[in-house]
Amino acid sequence: MNYKFFIQSLGCKVNQYDGAALAASLESLGFCQSELDPDLVVINTCTVTKNAIAKDRQLLNNLKRKYPEAKLVVMGCWPQTSKDNLGTFDNEGIFWWGVGRNDEFLAMVKDWFSLKDQSIESLESGLALTNDWSRYFLKVGDGCNQFCAYCLIPYARGRIKSRPLDELVSEARRAMETGLSEIVLAGIHLGRYGQDFQDGKTSLNNLLRALLALPGLGRIRLSSIEINEVDDELVSLMKNNSKICCHLHISLQSGCDKILSAMRRPYDTEYFRQRVDLIRRELPDMAITTDIIVGFPGEEEKDFLDTVEFSREIGFSKIHVFPFSAHEKTPAFSMENQVITKEIKSRAKTLRDLSLKMEAKYRQEIIEKYQGQLLPVVLEAIIGNKARLKTEFYFDFLLPLSSIGFGVETAEKNIGKLLTIKI
After folding, report:
1. What are phi and psi of 67, to 5 degrees?
2. Residues 109, 101 contacting (CB under 8 angstroms)
3. What is the Cβ-side half-sphere exposure of residue 228, based on CA atoms within 13 angstroms?
4. What is the rounded (10 degree) CA torsion for 276, 278, 284, 290?
5. What would the pLDDT profile of 119-154 be if each residue is shown by its tens digit?
């Protein structure tokens, strides 16, 4: 019998990778992906905020109603931090698993569906292809050692666990062989990749060197990284290798030193400013995107205005704004001087409006600088008779297919490929 499965992953790029890796393993067991009457439904959850958990719960209820006959599994950070009965079915027939231990979970799936004689393909030979068909997200490791006051990730995913460098290079090579041109390095704590090996060789910079040596590599993009992990060596690598995208996502979280200290962040605004100044001296076109939490406990109006002014000073190319919504198991949840919801929403709107202005300004500066020049872009998607093209600077162009010399059929065959266009 050909069994069917459906996986929906919420949250970060690491979660997306985990869901895709599980899908590859299920396919190797003979399952096929389908949203039509699946036998197995997996929700890969996020628990970064109370709002994220609310989305988890809403999705769970929706899928429970939609697929009453399917085996329903809840995986990811939500059950890992909220359930005492991990690895069991509850009284509603929902199986609660958590994070990791895929081999154990797959053994249970084989038992559920009487597939004990089936072998499982590992990622040593397969790929974790997400729904973003235009690029490959390469998970370099899991876990975090930082324990910021608002974050539950270290409790959900544990300490840093890096994957072997050779294994990552091999997976990247296989991804390139499918025709994908952009490799995105993803990890809960990307900049600390390899520190748990303590061999003096496994590090983010050495991983980048190994990937850059791959024949036929299109380009590499780094996902979120901390400012204190953008060292001089990394800046030099980015400056001297055009195949590393001119984009860094550096989480600020607050532009007020009082709040940064309460958040237990490992830097202050002066350090952040100095490092960004160095990056911009070496790489003046660098797109720097960021995350900022508004309404953290104790954040007064003046503190928020300091964050707004600091954001203007840094000149981010995009701000991802997160209204404070901490999990009850984090220290921030029980801190004094909680900010009222109405004020949090108002501050979030102010910062989002600022982000839109800064996005437009940065985009226009890059377009003017490269006007009439050739620019490498990845063909991300076809929308009607237009192509969505992602620049290394993390913004997109939406251009008529005719302007890049493609018809729809040709364009579809080139999704994920690195093209060169004149702007």
Report:
1. -125, 70
2. no
3. 10
4. -20
5. 655 545 566 666 556 788 999 998 888 889 998 888
